[in-house]
Design a protein that fits this description.
By secondary structure, this protein is mostly helical. The protein has one domain (about 25-100). About 55% of the residues lie in helices and about 10% in strands. Strands 1-3-2 form a three-stranded antiparallel β-sheet. Strand 2 (about 50) and strand 3 form a beta hairpin. The chain is elongated and about 70 Å long. The N and C termini lie far apart (about 75 Å).
Length: about 100
């Protein structure tokens, strides 16, 4: 008897996310990322998932991560590290700009 395997394909659509307010959450289904992948990322502490929702900031993080995988072929752990470093660079640049203004 031949066992049929299910195959899942990731298809990413880029859409504009709303401005991040503390209470804004995005349905994971709208990001079109496979549920097993989002669960793995949550287990690794890369994103926080509540039910089937992720905070809007985390959704933006997921989109960056998936772009790195799709366009550059970076594996998940590598993409997570890159996204983390990019966020730290953005924070430091914001701090530099703030200090220059004062």
């Amino acid at each position: 008897m031949k066992v049929l395997e299910k195959k899942f394909y990731l298809q990413i659509y880029r859409h504009t996310l709303p401005t991040a307010e503390e209470g804004e959450w995005v349905d994971l289904g709208s990001l079109e990322i496979h549920p097993d992948l989002t669960q793995k990322l949550a287990e690794w502490g890369i994103v926080e998932i509540r039910g089937s929702y992720v905070h809007v900031r985390q959704a933006a993080r997921l989109q960056k991560l998936m772009r790195l995988r799709r366009k550059l072929g970076v594996n998940l752990p590598g993409a997570a590290i890159i996204v983390d470093l990019l966020e730290r660079i953005e924070m430091l640049e914001d701090e530099i700009d703030r200090l220059k203004r004062h």
